[in-house]
Amino acid sequence: MDSFIPAILTMYIETYQQCFSKPNYKYFQGFILGLLIAEGKRTTTKIAEASFFLDRHISSFAGFLSRNKWELDKVKEAQ
User: Fold this and answer.
1) How far apart are CA 37 and CA 24, in angstroms?
2) What pTM, to 2 d.p., does this model score?
3) Which of 14, 35, 58, 63 to pair with 45, CA 20 to 30 A apart?
4) What is the H or E stretch that residue 34 is in?
5) Could you tell me if 58 and 34 are in contact, meaning their C-beta atoms sit under 8 angstroms apart?
6) How far apart are CA 41 and CA 25, in angstroms?
7) 18 and 74 in contact (C-beta within 8 Å)?
8) How many CB atoms lie within 10 A of CB 70?
C-alpha cells in the first residue's frame, strides 16, 4: 500500500499509529486514504469502496468507525 502513497502523507498518518491496535490502524489508514480518494458525497460505503487496498468487508469497516473505542486523549497528544 505504501508504494502509491506520498511519503508526506504516510508520515502524517504514522503519527497516529500509537493510538490504535494493529488491526484498527489498518482501518484508520484505509479511512483516511479512502476519504481522500472517494468522490462526491463521502459516505461510509463510498469511503470503504475507495479503500480497495484494505481487503476487508464493508461491515468490518463500518464497525471500526461506529464501535471502535477511540482514545481521544491519545489522538490529541499525537497531533
Assistant:
1) 20
2) 0.74
3) 14
4) helix 22-37
5) no
6) 24
7) yes
8) 11
